[in-house]
Design a protein that fits this description.
The complex is a heterodimer of chains A (about 475) and B (about 425). Chain A has helices at about 5-15, 20-25, 50-60, 115-120, 140-145, 155, 190-195, 230-240, 255-265, 280-300, 310-320, 325, 345-360, 390-405, 420-425, 430-445, 470-475; strands spanning about 20, 40-45, 65-70, 85-90, 95-100, 105-110, 125, 165-170, 175-180, 205-210, 210-215, 215-225, 245-250, 270-280, 305, 335, 340, 365-370, 375, 375-380. Chain A has 17 helices and 20 strands. In chain A, helix 8 crosses helix 10. In chain A, the strands form five sheets. Chain A has a seven-stranded antiparallel β-sheet, with helices on both faces. Chain A has a five-stranded antiparallel β-sheet with strand order 5-6-10-8-9. In chain B, strand 8 and strand 9 form a beta hairpin. In chain B, helix 7 (about 210-220) runs antiparallel to helix 10 and helix 10 (about 305-315) runs antiparallel to helix 11. The chains are: A alpha+beta (about 475), B alpha+beta (about 425). The complex binds flavin-adenine dinucleotide.
C-alpha cells in the first residue's frame, strides 16, 4: 500500500496499531480457513467507534476495500483479506461497558471474547447463551457477523435471538444504533438483517446482548450406540417425546477416538455416542434427564452414563468441544465442513457421507450438533499425498450438495464467507440472491465492505474470486520478503 | 397463464377509510406475484390485507389504490413433525394451523388475540404476539424461512426449512414488523414446539407498581421459567403467571411461586382450568378492543411505574382504559373498546378529541422519557389526526429509507404507513 496512505491510517489509530510490514501482515492473511490466503495492504487496530469511523471514511476516500476482523477463528474465509485491502481488527475493543442484569442485558465492545462475557456475569448467576466451541477466543462482533451457534443453541437459539442492539459504522463513516435494550424499537428490523451479514454491511463496534439467568439445574447424559443409526433414532425419539434438550451432540467412532486421545476420557470404542444436556428447574431437569435416558436405552443404547460430579461433566464437554482440534492427532490434515439436514434424516445422511467417503477413498469423522441436524463432517486426508487435498475438497463439496438435496442448508453456523460463495446458487435462485444484494446495497452501495463474500458477484458466478489453493509464499507480494 | 381473481373495491375493503380501486385475491404465490405486477403496471399503491385485525398499526397509507387479500393463500404446504417445522401460506389463520399441528403434539408458540382471524403472514408483518412471548419471543424467533413478492413482482425466498441455517441475508426476519411495506409475504416457514403436557397458572392480585416489579424480578432470581407472565389492569395490577411443561415439574414451579407470594403477603390464587381460561378471555378482550389501542414499551424495571402513570393520564381522557401487558418483556397495550357495529357513535372513546390527543401525547412522553416508545395501533380519527402514530423517528431512519428505496423504488407498498413516514 502507498506509504502516504498507510501514514494517514496510522495517524488515526497510532503507529503501533497500524501494520503494513509484510512479516506483521502474515497473521492476517487468512482466518481459520487457512487454505485460502491473501495479503492485505494494511491492518489497523482501532480502539474506539470514532477511530473505526475515521478509518472507514479514509478507506472510502481512497477507494480501498475494508475487511472487518475479530479473532480470525471463522471457518469460511469471512475475514480473508481482499488483496491490498484494509483489515479492521476489533481486537483492542474488548471492554464490557455495562450490565443491567435485572433487565437482562449487557453492552459490550465488539472485540470482547464470547466466553469473557459469561465469565464477567458468572458471579451474578447470569450468562450469555450462544456458546460456539471457539468461545474462548472468538469475538462477539464475529459472532454477530456470523450469527454463530453452539451446542446449546438447540434450546436457546442462535446469536440473532440474543442480540438486542448493535452500534454499527456504515460505509459512509456514519455511526448508527440498530435496536437496543428496550423491546420492539420502531421501524424495520435492520438488526435482523445485520446479524449474519458476515462483515458485508458494516462494522459493529458495540453490541447489546440478552443476558439469561443461569438455569437452576443442568443434567448431562452420555450414551453409546452400536452405530449412528441408533444414535440418530434416539435424537428423533427424544425430540418427539416433547423434550427440548439444551444440547444433543453426536460423535462417531473416529471422533470419539480423537476426543479420547486429547482428553484421556475413558470413552469406549463404539459406533456412535450422544452427549445430551437438559436444563431448567431442578424438577424439570431431573424428569427430562431420566426420560431421555430411558429413550436412549429403548432406542438401542449400549450404555448410558451420568457424570458423577460437575468436574466429570465438564470433562465430557471438554471432550466434545476439543474433538475438532483433536482430529489433528489422528490425521495429518483435515477439512471441516458445515452443512445442515433435517434432523429426521441423520441416519440417512450419515450413511450417504460414509458412502461418499468410501467412493473417494477418504475417512470422515463426524462430531456435530445432532439436535438441529447441523453436520460437521471432518474430512481427513494427507496433504503430502499428491491430489488428496483436492479429493478431500471435492468430497466436502459433495456432502454439501447432499445437504441441499435433503432439504437442508450449505451452512448452519460457519457462514458462507469466501469459501461457499460458489454454493449459494445451489440453494438460492438468481432472484433470491438479487434480492439479498438489494439489501446489501441499501447498506453499502459501493461494496466497500468485504467484497466477494456471501453473495456471488454476477460476473464471478460459478468461480471463486480467490485462487483456491494459494500458499502463503505464492500469495506474497512479489516486492516484499515472503 | 393463471389469472388472479380481481374485482372493484367496495366500502368493506376500505383501509382506514380509503376505498381501493381494485381488490386482488390470489390463491397461489404466482397469482400474488401477478397481482403485484398488475398494481405496478397500473401505478396502484398496494395494501396487503390478511385477517384485517391490525390494519390500524402506524400511519394511514398515503394512497390505497389496490388491496391484495391473502385469504386464499390458505394451504399448509408442509408439516414435518419429526423436524418440527411447517411451511404455511400467508393467508392461513393461526387457528387453522394450530389445528393441523395439535394432533401431532405440536404448536406454533404464538398466541395473539384473534387467532381465528389473524393470518400467519399478517402476524409476521404486524409482529403479532401474545402471552407466550414471555418464553418463546416473537415471530422473529420462530420464523426460519419466507417467500416474498417484491414490489416489482419478483418472487424471492430467504432462509430455508431447517432451524439452523446461516446461508445468505436474513430476508425472513427483515419482514417481521414490516407492515407490508417491503414486500408481500407469500409463505412462511416456522419452527414448532411440543405442546406442553401440563400447564398451571398462578394469579397474584392487587399489586402496586413496586410489587409488580419485585414479583417479576423475583421470578428471574428464583430461576423459575414461566411460559407467560401477563399483567392485567393498571391500578392495581393483576399478574397471571403460567408454567408449562411436564406435570410434576410444573406443579413444583407453581407451588414455589405461590409460597413466595404468600410470604410477601400478596393475594395469590392457584387457578383451575376454568380460572385460567377466564384470565385468557379477559386478556384477549382488552387486547382486542380497538376504539383506541396503544402499544407501549420500556425496560422491565421502568415498565410498571410508567404503566401506572399512563393509566391515570389516559383514564382522565378515555372511559375505562384497559391494560394488558407482559412485564418481563416490558411491552403492553392500553385499549378502549370501539363503537359496536350498528351503535352509531355511542360506546366509543368518550373524550373530546383534543383531550384524547393530549392524553396520548402525554402518555408517549412518559415512555419516551424512559427510552421507551408508544405506537398507535388503533385510534379515533381525531386522535389520529393530532398525534403521530410512531413518535420519535428511529435512529436508523436514513438506512430504513435506503432499504425501502431499494426494495420498493416506486413507493407502491403501503406508502406512509411505517415509522418515519416510510
Ligand atoms: C475450533 C473452532 C470451533 C468453532 N466452533 C464453532 C461453533 O461451535 N459454532 C459456530 O457458530 N462457529 C464456530 N466456529 C467458527 C468461528 O469461531 C465463529 O464463526 C466466530 O463467530 C468467529 O468469530 P471471530 O471473532 O473469530 O471472527 P472472524 O473470524 O475474525 O470474522 C468472522 C466474520 O465476521 C466478520 N467480522 C468480524 N468482526 C466483525 C465486526 N466487528 N463487524 C463486522 N463484521 C465482523 C468478518 O469480516 C468475517 O466475515 C469455530 C471455529 C473454530 C476454529
Amino acid at each position: 500500500m502507498d506509504p502516504g496512505l498507510v501514514a494517514r491510517f496510522a495517524a488515526i489509530v497510532g503507529a503501533r496499531n497500524c501494520l503494513a510490514e509484510p512479516p506483521a501482515l502474515v497473521t492476517y492473511e487468512c482466518d481459520g480457513l487457512t487454505s485460502m490466503r491473501a495479503r492485505p495492504g494494511v491492518v489497523v487496530l482501532p480502539a474506539s467507534t470514532g477511530e473505526v469511523a475515521a478509518v472507514v471514511r479514509l478507506a472510502r476516500e481512497a477507494g480501498v476495500a475494508i475487511v472487518p476482523r475479530g479473532a480470525g477463528t471463522g471457518l469460511s474465509g469471512g475475514a480473508l483479506p481482499v488483496a491490498g485491502c484494509v483489515v479492521v481488527g476489533l481486537a483492542r475493543m474488548r471492554r464490557i461497558l455495562e450490565a443491567d442484569l435485572a433487565n437482562g442485558w449487557a453492552r459490550v465492545e465488539a472485540g470482547v471474547a464470547n466466553l469473557d462475557v459469561s465469565k464477567h456475569l458468572a458471579a451474578a448467576g447470569a450468562y450469555y447463551a450462544p456458546d460456539p466451541s471457539s468461545q474462548r477466543v472468538c469475538t462477539i462482533g464475529g459472532n454477530v457477523a456470523e450469527n454463530s451457534g453452539g451446542a446449546h443453541c438447540l434450546k436457546y437459539g442462535f446469536t440473532v435471538n440474543h442480540v438486542l442492539g448493535a452500534r454499527v459504522v456504515l460505509a459512509d463513516g456514519s455511526v448508527v444504533d440498530l435496536g437496543g435494550p428496550v423491546a420492539d424499537p420502531a421501524g424495520f428490523d435492520l438488526l435482523a438483517a445485520f446479524v449474519g451479514s458476515e462483515g458485508t454491511l458494516g462494522i459493529v463496534t458495540e453490541v447489546v446482548l440478552r443476558v439469561l439467568r443461569k438455569p437452576e439445574a443442568t443434567r448431562t447424559l452420555f450414551a453409546t450406540f452400536p452405530s449412528c443409526a441408533e444414535a440418530g433414532e434416539t435424537v428423533s425419539a427424544i425430540i418427539a417425546s416433547g423434550i427440548v434438550p439444551a444440547a444433543i451432540e453426536m460423535m462417531d467412532t473416529l471422533a470419539i477416538a480423537a476426543a479420547r486421545a486429547a482428553t484421556g476420557l475413558d470413552w469406549p470404542e463404539v459406533g456412535a455416542a450422544l452427549l445430551v444436556d437438559v436444563d431448567g428447574t431442578v424438577g424439570e431437569a431431573g424428569h427430562t434427564a431420566a426420560r431421555a435416558g430411558e429413550i436412549a436405552r429403548g432406542s438401542g443404547a449400549l450404555e448410558v452414563r451420568w457424570p458423577r460430579d460437575e468436574a466429570e461433566r465438564q470433562l465430557m464437554w471438554k471432550g466434545r468441544k476439543s474433538a475438532f482440534a483433536a482430529v489433528g492427532r489422528i490425521s495429518p490434515s483435515y477439512l471441516v465442513q458445515d452443512g445442515v439436514i433435517p434432523r429426521s434424516e441423520i441416519a440417512r445422511a450419515l450413511g450417504e457421507v460414509a458412502r461418499l467417503a468410501r467412493e473417494a477413498g477418504l475417512r470422515v469423522a463426524n462430531v456435530f450438533h445432532a439436535g438441529d441436524g447441523n453436520l460437521h463432517p471432518l474430512v481427513l486426508y494427507d496433504a503430502r499425498v499428491p491430489g488428496e487435498e483436492r479429493k478431500a475438497e471435492e468430497l466436502a463439496g459433495e456432502i454439501l450438495r447432499m445437504c441441499v438435496r435433503l432439504g437442508g442448508s450449505i451452512t448452519g453456523e460457519h457462514g458462507v464467507g469466501a469459501d461457499k460463495v460458489v454454493y449459494m446458487g445451489e440453494m438460492f435462485s438468481e432472484d433470491d440472491l438479487a434480492t439479498m444484494d438489494l439489501v446489501r446495497s441499501a447498506f453499502d452501495p459501493e461494496r466497500l465492505f468485504n467484497p466477494g463474500k456471501v453473495l456471488p458477484a454476477p460476473r464471478l458466478c460459478g468461480e471463486r474470486p480467490w485462487p483456491s489453493r494459494v500458499r502463503p509464499v505464492e500469495a506474497a507480494d512479489p516486492a516484499g520478503p515472503a | 397463464m393463471s389469472a388472479v381473481a380481481r374485482r372493484e373495491g367496495r366500502g368493506g375493503d376500505a383501509v382506514l377509510g380509503l376505498v381501493p380501486r381494485a381488490v386482488f385475491e390470489p390463491s397461489t404465490v404466482e397469482e400474488a406475484a401477478e397481482a403485484i405486477r398488475a398494481c405496478d403496471a397500473e401505478e396502484l399503491c398496494v395494501t396487503v390485507v390478511g385477517g384485517g385485525t391490525d390494519l390500524g398499526i402506524g400511519g394511514r397509507p398515503s394512497a390505497v389504490g389496490a388491496v391484495v387479500r391473502t385469504g386464499r393463500l390458505d394451504r399448509v404446504v408442509e408439516h414435518a413433525p419429526a423436524d418440527q417445522i411447517a411451511v404455511v401460506e400467508a393467508g392461513v389463520p393461526l387457528v387453522a394451523l394450530q389445528e393441523r399441528l395439535a394432533p401431532h403434539g405440536q404448536r406454533l408458540a404464538l398466541d395473539p388475540p384473534f387467532p381465528g382471524r389473524a393470518t400467519v403472514g399478517g402476524l409476521v408483518a404486524a409482529n403479532g404476539f401474545g402471552p407466550l412471548r414471555t418464553r418463546y419471543g416473537t415471530t422473529r424467533d420462530l420464523l426460519i424461512g419466507a417467500t416474498l413478492v417484491r414490489a416489482d413482482g419478483v418472487v424471492a425466498r430467504g432462509g430455508g426449512k431447517v432451524v439452523k441455517n446461516v446461508a445468505g441475508f436474513d430476508l425472513p426476519r427483515l419482514m417481521v414488523g414490516s407492515l407490508g411495506s417491503l414486500g408481500l409475504i407469500a409463505t412462511v416457514t416456522f419452527r414448532l414446539h411440543p405442546l406442553p403436557e401440563a400447564a398451571e397458572t398462578v394469579l397474584l392480585s392487587g399489586l402496586d407498581p413496586e410489587g409488580l416489579w419485585r414479583t417479576v424480578r423475583g421470578l428471574r432470581e428464583a430461576q423459575l421459567e414461566p411460559s407467560a407472565v401477563v399483567a392485567l389492569g393498571a391500578g392495581p395490577f393483576d399478574l397471571a403467571v403460567t408454567f408449562e411443561g411436564f406435570g410434576p415439574a410444573v406443579e413444583a414451579q407453581r407451588d414455589r411461586l405461590a409460597a413466595a407470594a404468600r410470604k410477601e403477603g400478596a393475594a395469590c390464587e392457584v387457578l383451575d382450568a376454568a380460572g385460567a381460561a377466564g384470565i385468557r378471555e379477559r386478556h384477549d378482550a382488552i387486547r382486542a378492543a380497538d376504539g383506541l389501542r396503544l402499544k407501549v414499551a420500556a425496560l422491565p424495571s421502568h415498565f410498571p411505574g410508567a404503566v401506572a402513570d399512563a393509566s391515570r393520564v389516559l383514564g382522565s381522557a378515555f372511559r375505562g382504559p384497559g391494560f394488558a401487558g407482559y412485564p418481563s418483556v416490558g411491552v403492553g397495550f392500553f385499549t378502549v373498546p370501539g363503537p359496536r357495529a350498528g351503535d352509531a357513535g355511542g360506546g366509543g372513546p368518550s373524550a373530546a378529541a383534543a383531550e384524547g390527543a393530549r392524553a396520548v401525547a402525554r402518555t408517549r412522553e412518559l415512555f419516551e422519557r424512559l427510552g421507551g416508545s408508544l405506537v398507535v395501533q388503533a385510534a379515533p380519527e381525531a386522535v389520529r389526526a393530532a398525534v403521530d402514530p410512531w413518535g420519535e423517528p428511529p435512529a436508523a431512519l436514513a438506512l430504513m429509507k435506503s432499504l425501502k428505496e431499494r426494495l420498493d423504488p416506486r413507493g407502491r407498498l403501503a406508502p406512509g404507513r411505517h415509522a418515519g413516514g416510510i
